[in-house]
Amino acid sequence: MATDSFVKLNPISINRNRFDLRDFAGISPKSISSLCCISPRMISCNHFSRRTLISGENDNILFPKKKIPAFVRCQTSLGIGRNQKWWEKELQPNMKSVTSPEDLVGSLRNAGDKLVVVDFFSPSCGGCKALHPKICKIAEKNPEVEFLQVNYEDHRSLCQSLNVHVLPFFRFYRGSSGRVCSFSCTNATIKKFKEALEKHGREQCSIGETKGLEEKELVAMAANKDLSFDYKPKSNGNIQEQKEKDIFLPKSPTSNKQKEVERSDLLVSSA
Question: What is the similarity comment for this entry (predicted)?
């Protein structure tokens, strides 16, 4: 919701050739809030959006020749007090933030034969912050690769179930092969990330169902009480069926000829 406010400015601060947001450095938040009913805490000279407008009835108001006070019409918004977080900057269309364990599992399984890079980061991690712009540039150059961001602070239990304890950390998944590699990488060792992307990023068709997370990881996520994730293990049933087959499967009797051959081999070896 936009609100119009009129602020009295010194005409010297207005540039005739171009309009710069830095021209508003001398505006007091209180002077704006008293006119547009917005809290001074939500208004700062650094938070004016690029939609800030200057209008007047004639050129003398916008660019007066004489040093007379001028009125500037500023269009402010209630969302101007929110700063963009560093992990939200320079994101590409093939970059997505994971919202839940189900979102992570579904994104990996629905990727098909595409290469998926899972980026584990933390807002308080300096190495993650320094590496983020380079990862965004790599994502821009490789639109066929999907990048999933997992915020450690928001999904701490999920990361612990996946045994992720070092940041920044990356995992590469592809088709029926599942996880093809995983490693920790920093701004200084970005070469490791590029080499893994070149190795596993080539187009290929895999035979079989897309694997995604490993079975033991899915079981660990389901066993974690902090996660509302339901999963029924598949391997336990297969193991139980195999045990039942081994128990009830009759063994083939050994023939007399086979026993004689075994005895002769033992006599020769003892001699």
Answer: Belongs to the thioredoxin family.
Contact 91, 182 (CB under 8 A): no
Taking a C-beta distance cutoff of 8 angstroms, is the pair 64, 70 a contact?
yes
Strand ranges (E), the chain: 2-9, 70-77, 95-97, 115-121, 146-151, 169-174, 178-184
Catalytic residue among 128, 181, 185, 205: 128
- 174-231 pLDDT, tens digit per residue, is 999 999 999 999 999 999 999 999 999 887 777 889 999 999 999 999 999 999 999 9
Residue among 36, 45, 125, 159 flagged as catalytic? 125
Question: C-alpha 142: how far from its chain's center?
Answer: 16
Between strands 95-97 and 146-151, the pairing is parallel
- Strand pairing category for 169-174 and 115-121: antiparallel
> pTM for the full model?
0.59
* C-alpha separations of 61 from 3, 7, 28, 142, 168 in Å: 21, 13, 21, 50, 54
Convert the pLDDT of each residue in 32-80 to its tens digit: 444 444 444 444 444 444 444 444 444 443 444 445 554 445 444 444 4
The burial class, CB within 10 Å (0-12 / 13-18 / 19+), for 75 is middle
- Note if 128 is an active site residue: yes
CB 215 within 8 A of CB 232: no
DSSP SS3 for 117: strand
State how beta strands 115-121 and 2-9 pair.
unpaired
